[in-house]
Every structure is written in C-alpha cells, then in structure tokens.
Amino acid sequence: MLFFSEKSLTAWLNHLMLDRTVLAPVRGTNDLVYFQSITNSEAIFIKSQNAALSPKDWFFPRSETIMSFITKDGKTQIIPATMEKDAVIFGIRPCDARAISLIDRPFLAEPVDALYQERRNRTALVGIACVTVCQECFCTSMGSGPFDPGALDIMLTPVDSGFAVQVVTDKGKKLLEKAIIQDRELTLPKPPEVKPVPSAGVTEAMRRVFNNVYWDRVADRCIHCNICAFVCPCCYCFDVRDYKGKDRIERVRSWESCESALFTRAAGGHNPRPSKGARMRQRFAHKLLYFPEIFGELKCTGCGRCVRNCPVNIDIREIIHDVQKLARE
Amino acid sequence: MSQPIRDKARELLQTRKVDCVIGYERATDGITARPLFVYDVKDVDRLIFDRTCVHNLSRYLRDRRDRMTAIVAKPCDARGINMLLNEHQLDRQKLFIIGVVCHGVDERCWGQTDTRQQARCQWCRQHVPPVYDFLVGEKPAGEPPSAGFPDIEEFEKKSPAERRAFWEEQYRACIRCNACRHSCPGCYCQECFAENLDPTWIGIRIAPAESQIWNLVRAFHLSGRCVDCGACEQACPVNIPLMLLNRKLQKDGIEFFGFEPGLSAEAVPPFATFRKDERPGGEG
Amino acid sequence: MVTAYQPRIIGFLCNWCSYAGADLAGTSRISYPGNIRIIRVPCSARVDPLFIVKAFQYGADGVLVAGCHPGDCHYSEGNYHTRRRLALLHSFLDFTGIERERVRLEWVSASEGRRWSQVVTDFTAQVAALGPRVK
Q1: Is the CB of residue C76 less than 8 Å away from at least one CB of chain B?
Q2: Helices A114-122 and A94-107 meet at what angle, rounded to 10?
Q3: Which of A20, B65, C24, C86 is the least crowded, having the fewest Cβ atoms under 10 Å away?
Q4: Is residue C135 part of a domain?
Q5: DSSP label at B223?
Q6: Residue C94 lies in a domain
Q7: Structural domain includes residue C3
Q8: In the prediction, which pLDDT does C31 show?
Q9: ipTM for the complex shown
C-alpha cells in the first residue's frame, strides 16, 4: 500500500505551497476551525470534528465580485474575475467533497458558471478519511461514507505515524509526482459506525407529504436566519447585485438562503413564498425532492453542520424520519 | 420546574384560554433544548424547563399578536415582553405569561454535557420575571447582589489599537447569517436598515467593512432596548461575542440615563425623552 | 516631497443654526482648514449613528455633528435627542476601537461664524493628531 510518512507529507505540502494556493483546516477566530490558505504546514489542524464552514467557500465564495465594468471614452470594458494560481484543498472530508460534486450538477450544466468551472478544474482535493464520527454525522445514508474516496483526487487514511495514500484520479496522480511515497504493509483502521437515517425512498415520501400541515408546525420555531444554508456544504443559493465602486461598477454575488423572508420577494412586492411553512418546506423539498428529480441524487451529504448549528434544532434527520412516517399514513 | 409548567399549560389549553403555549422541549441531541409550540393537550408533557432553556421565546410573540398565547418566560424573556409592550408591539390582553424563577442558564453547546453557565447570568439581578401571570419556582429571599459589568470594564482596559484589532477580527468572521437579528425580540422592523436599497447602507457584500456596519449599527439600534437575554450570541454560528457590544450599551444606558430596559412596560425609554439640563457627555 | 497627513472629516450640520454659521464664516472670509466636507441636514437629530459609522467606512477619519444650542432648536427638541444619542455613540465607538476624539458634537449658532472656524480648526488638528483611522 502507498504510505506517506508525516515528514514526507509535510515536505510535499510545503512543495505545493511554492506555486499553488493550499487550503487546509486551521484554528481560526473564536477557536473555530476554518479552511484557509496556508503558507506553513504547521498551521494545519485536523481534529475529529469537521471545519465550521465547508470548503465550498473556495469554489463558491460567500461574497465575490464576479466581474467589473469600466466605462471609458464611451466604451465599456468587462473585467472578469480570475484565479491567480492552481489550488489544493488539503484535509477535506468525504462529505464535503461529495457536496462539491453535487454543486457541480447545476453549476457545470449549461450555461456553465465559468468562474466555478475554472476553480474546479484548477483545484485538487486531497481528502482525509474520518476515523471517528460526530453523533450528528449521517454520511452513509446520503451516498457517502467516512472512507468514501468518491469525489476526491487523493484519499489519505490515517494510520500509525502517517497516512495510507489512495490515488483516485489522474489529477491526483500528477499532484503526487514530487512526493516521496513508500510502499508498505499497512493495516487500515476500520471505518467507524455511522448512525443511519431512513433516506431510502424519501423523495417519494416528500411528494406525498407536500401539502401536509407538518411544514407549518416545524416552521413555527424556525427563525428564518441563514445559518442552515450558509453552513451547508451543498447549498448554493445566491443573490447578485451591481454596486458602484470608485471608477467602476462591480457585480457582486453573495450567499443567500431560501429561508430568509425576502428571498423570493419580487420587485413590486409579490412574494410567492410568503409563509414560514412554505419556506421550510422549500428547503427540504429542494434537498430531498426537486434536486433528486432533476439530478438523480439527494442534495445532502450528511455532514451534520445544520444539525449542530441550527439555533432552534431543526434537524434534517428528524425531518426525514417524520416525512417517511407521515407518508405511510 | 417542568411539571408545574405542564400542568398550567394543560389547564390553559383545556379551558381554551389560549390557542398555543410556547415553551421548550428537549432537542434531538438529548441534551440541549429547543422551542416548542403546543397547540394540543396531548403534547403538553413534552414541555420542559431547565438550565438548557436558553432561547428568548418572546421573539415569537409578535407573529401571534392577535391570538391568545401562553409563553414560558425567564426573567430576561419577560423583560423582552415588557420592552415589546412598551413599544406597542404586543397586546397584554392576549398574553398569558408563565414566569419562571431563574438562577442562570448554560451556554448552548450542541451535544455537549459539560458546558458552563452563560457569563451574563453571573451578573444578572433579575431572578424573578418583572411581569408574569403565573410564577413557577421559589422566589429567592433578599435582593441579588449588585454585580455591574465586570466583563465590559475588563475589555475597556485594552488599548484602542487592541480593541480595534479585536473587533476587526470579529467582523472578518461574521458571515452575515442574521441569526442575531432573527433570534432577538427587539429586531422586529419589517424592513431592516440592512435591507434598505435606497440608500444601500450595507448591501449584499459579505466582507469586514460591511459586517462592521452591520454589527455596530444593529447593536446601536438596540440601545435602550436590549434586555440582555443573550439569544444573539447563542445563535451566532461563528461565536462572535455579541454580548460585549450589547452589554456596553446597557452599561452606558444605566450610567448616562439611569435606564434598564424591560423592567416595566410603562417606563419611557431613554431615546424617547431627555432632560434639558443634562450633560451626558460627548459635547465639544 | 512628503506631504503631512491630511485627515478627511465629514460634518453633519443642521440647516438652521450650524450651516448658517458656517455660511457666515464663509461670507466673512474667515478661513478654516478645508479637510471638512459638509452635509446639510434639517436638524442634528436627523443624524442616525448609522451615518457616522458609514462615514468611517467610506474613509472618514473624523465626524463632526453640529446643531443649534440646546433650547434653540428650530424643531424645539431635536438637539436634546442628538445629545443623548451622541453621548452613547461616543462611548460605544470608543469601545470598538474608534477613538472618541474622532467624533464630536458641537453647538454652533447662525451668528457664530468665527466660532465655527475655531471649532473646525480645533477638530481638524485633533483628528490629525490621531492619525488615519485605517492604518
């Protein structure tokens, strides 16, 4: 089996940092772990729980100027946003990687989001298997698993004094060209147990409970903040506005959430989703009904962030349980 | 604590005195709590009350202003109710307040049993709700000690440069999820200044400069109104110490104007009044 | 050639007293530093602390709010409210690292042209001594 010692892994990362942006989990503000660009591999912090925010921020930033317009001498020039260097995301978990491949489905379909596509093409994902899981993880019920290499370029599994290396894609193979990797007899750890959630058939169940008053009841306690959509690695709703800068107009795209009361309000004041229950239902319908209908997969990877962070404990696992139960009635 | 609340809720629903009882139940981690809306007597036994019940439920009342509602209220939550009554946002006749005597609540940490008490609780002087229709718990004997704002005084020892650096790091962390606004009973504006388009005060950009305006102005719009319930800080997913901002304004509200929000529904808030001869500071 | 740092100052002046006072300074040819950019408001109470924070975001190094003397407000009571608001804002901004010396509330009447120029000269020097707000 291919083996990276800690020392050679560090050397490889340092080498990558010379001409690439390397993102890794680091300890950030208020003691939370975030994926940030590093210049020193000492900063990497991989503890058992996943980072507070997923690395979807790299491909789909929370806020960015997607293009600028300058008008000079009567001519308008469009300045697109560009990506400086190739990138590597190190330490990404299988759930977060799968989530990015789910965001690919709408963003890389025609018309392609060119910015997103460039970032995807020029970024490699080096994942780390989860040898422990949080109580709120449920990746195995959402098409992934703690050791799932599916959406990665390279998969690292922690073993004694290093990592077992699985090369998943050609991009990953190329990335490892300068790496010092040994061939060794290795005993891989057993994947940890992940609590299951009854996701099989949930799409059909959602269809059946679409008009149920259940959604209003759940929505009673929802405070319609943006937390669930913002911490979710596969949510991708956004808003686009133009702003006047000093000498140019900037088109800014920022994260938004279908939960917020103004999300579907149109100019003129009409809002097709005015009630709390309608918005609540929308979130879960998008994840469990509409996305699977269009793309064939549930739009959730079981990372558990929404469960951990929702101030009023709207728990998608509970929702799935309830929806399945109600559909049977 | 839980049983008297359940019994009262049962009575109120059975006699149709209210359509709904807003209280707390256990969350799915088996440890923390979450809000519960009880419409039917059969759900009454889900109600609980303990140190994990941190949410300020009064923020739900403004959507139910025309319907009879019972609410479980800690002292800080009841202050929120008073503040809303003061600002004519609620009809007292439509409320049945199940007040709870409180000796502090804990930090809300999902899935963790070893959490500590919320900092604000150690300095809180309201152990009995200032308004209630039914009280649960024993009224403590004597007055709680006057504890002031040691957290603010401690922070004020930092130099201006240190304070600036501290807050700039927090503005960078803010993701503008607005959970602070939505968990707050005082933030009920139909259109928040942050959503204003003409002029665009903040806009949609999520970046430190905009987040600074968001956090500072939201806190300031709550000055003289914030009831120290801590819901904003508990909701914040990136752990911004919002209570430092809010409590600074509370401290100044007491020092400059002798006013503590929410203690009475009839008091005149500090920005709705003035004294001609006062010198609250800040003049050239 | 190195030029000395010139602070950028925003002034919110009430229409009835301070703006008239500033105008009088102008017509009397009393000079004062040109760092200040004046925004006329109907009353000093129109100044939402939001404006002040926004001015700092846009690059102001200092903000001056000027109104009628207490008791002389054109709208009777506006400046009493301004006084309370600015007192709290001073303390609050200072807490967040924006020094209290960067915000000033002054009462300038329509006849106080000379006083206006003194206020601006003094405030400009005070803000200059603090250096730029964003280093």
Answers
A1: no
A2: 140
A3: B65
A4: no
A5: T
A6: yes
A7: no
A8: 94
A9: 0.94
